[in-house]
TrEMBL record:
Residues 322-368 form the UBA domain. SUPFAM superfamilies: UBA-like. This is UBA domain-containing protein. InterPro entries: UBA, UBA-like_sf. It holds the Pfam family UBA_7.
């Protein structure tokens, strides 16, 4: 029963916390509290006039610690979630309140008899969202525990389902559909008339969902991507729309990567080899489509590339990430892009602040995506006309020309591109 109470508390109080944090109104159904450990004790506390947030917290703390001593860890977790929900509803609370709450959270996280790493991770995330971490002495324990839990979860995942890893996923029969779904997140942002960016001051994030796709391709293939599609050749026709999505997304990624000013971009530079791999991917996909469709896709990419080259420039964000913070985060296992993003989003306030931000945002879709931004021609500097940019432009033009005639197995533009790079 206590285990069921733990699951009920996770669902009920997590929903309440998310609702309060987002500013949405609480519905009547959300106020129906499931059966909770210590319910009778809380009723007695209310009868005795224990109605202040801090006194209620102390009563729940006594119940939580007692449950842990009696090895009723699931009941303790349920009580802990109710305490976090109370903190979400509280308009203001003192340092004493915060300290007592963090002590209870630490007690749950450090309990070695409770091995549900998913719930422990969720408690970490909810706590960081709620608590002003700058004044919390237990923050180091919280973040250290979260890091260990993250590592344990990853190792458990690989032990239980190694075939679901990167290489295994590439041989999934639904590979094209899955990749297309990833790509749609990017094309939804970039699938617009790029020339309309001129004269506008807003930034457009251009590399949303391609990181996962690229790493899967790089892990499982050489520069020749034809073997990747060979196993799907029999069922390509029903997936033509997916291939079109992939082609548009990859061509957009290629343009963004080629136009990046490699000398001063915020994120780690993408080597030319990465661009070549993506060119190989898009060429394979284009060859599976009819000529007219392929020509239209590449023609649009050429025009978009020219518009970007003439009317836009890539620049870094105004805030430069603190290198010391980035290195420490990377040493804790976070990627370089995620580490830079955490430092920038917290305005380089310090390592603890950046780590807290990383803990609360590690599930974001773009958490470890590169930080490339497009700006209009009023940007303080212009993009340097590098050989990479010119070669990519020539390659796209040659690719477009190749679809004016019947498709063949010969791909001269790919051979030429490798020589140029």
């Amino acid at each position: 029963r206590s285990k069921n109470a733990c699951v009920d508390a996770l669902q009920y109080f997590s929903f309440q916390i998310e609702t309060v944090m987002s500013g949405n109104p609480i519905t009547d159904s959300a106020l129906v509290l499931p059966p909770m450990p210590g319910g009778l004790i809380m009723q007695l506390a209310n009868i005795l006039g224990v109605n202040s947030p801090f006194k209620t917290l102390l009563v729940k703390k006594i119940m939580l610690m007692g449950a842990l001593r009696k090895s009723l860890v699931h009941a303790a977790v349920a009580i802990c979630y109710s305490m976090l929900a109370d903190a979400a509803f509280a308009n203001d609370y003192t340092d004493s309140y915060r300290s007592e709450l963090m002590g209870c959270v630490d007690a749950i996280l450090l309990d070695r008899t409770y091995i549900d790493s998913f719930i422990k991770q969720d408690i970490c995330i909810q706590t960081v969202k709620l608590i002003s971490v700058s004044s919390t002495s237990s923050l180091d324990t919280l973040l250290e525990t979260f890091y260990n839990l993250e590592y344990e979860s990853l190792m458990t995942y690989w032990e239980q389902a190694p075939s679901e890893g990167v290489r295994g996923a590439l041989h999934d029969s639904n590979f094209l559909e899955r990749v297309a779904n990833q790509a749609r997140g990017l094309t939804a942002t970039n699938d617009q008339d790029v020339s309309s960016l001129s004269g506008k001051s807003k930034n457009v994030f251009t590399n949303g969902g391609m990181g996962c796709l690229f790493h899967e391709i790089k892990e499982a293939t050489s520069t020749d991507l034809l073997p990747l599609l060979s196993s799907f050749r029999g069922g390509i026709a029903p997936n033509a729309s997916n291939l079109e999505v992939i082609c548009r997304a990859v061509l957009s990624w290629i343009s963004s990567a080629a136009l990046m000013d490699q000398k001063s971009a915020t994120d780690s530079n993408l080597p030319d080899y990465n661009i070549i791999v993506m060119i190989e991917l898009v060429s394979c996909c284009l060859r599976e489509l009819d000529n007219d469709t392929s020509f239209a896709i590449v023609n649009r990419a050429v025009k978009a590339f020219e518009s970007l080259q003439q009317g836009s420039s890539l620049t870094i964000t105004q805030i430069q990430p603190d290198h010391a913070i980035v290195e420490r985060l990377n040493g804790r296992g976070y990627g370089w892009n995620a580490s830079r993003r955490a430092a920038i989003m917290t305005k380089n306030q310090g390592y603890s602040e950046a780590l807290a931000w990383a803990v609360s945002h590690f599930q974001d879709d773009d958490f470890d995506s590169p930080l490339y931004f497009l700006q209009n021609e009023s940007a303080p500097r212009r993009i340097e006309k590098s050989m990479v940019v010119e070669n990519i432009k020539k390659l796209l033009v040659a690719m477009r020309a190749s679809f004016r005639r019947p498709s063949t197995n010969h791909r001269p533009f790919l051979t030429d591109a490798k020589g140029d790079f």
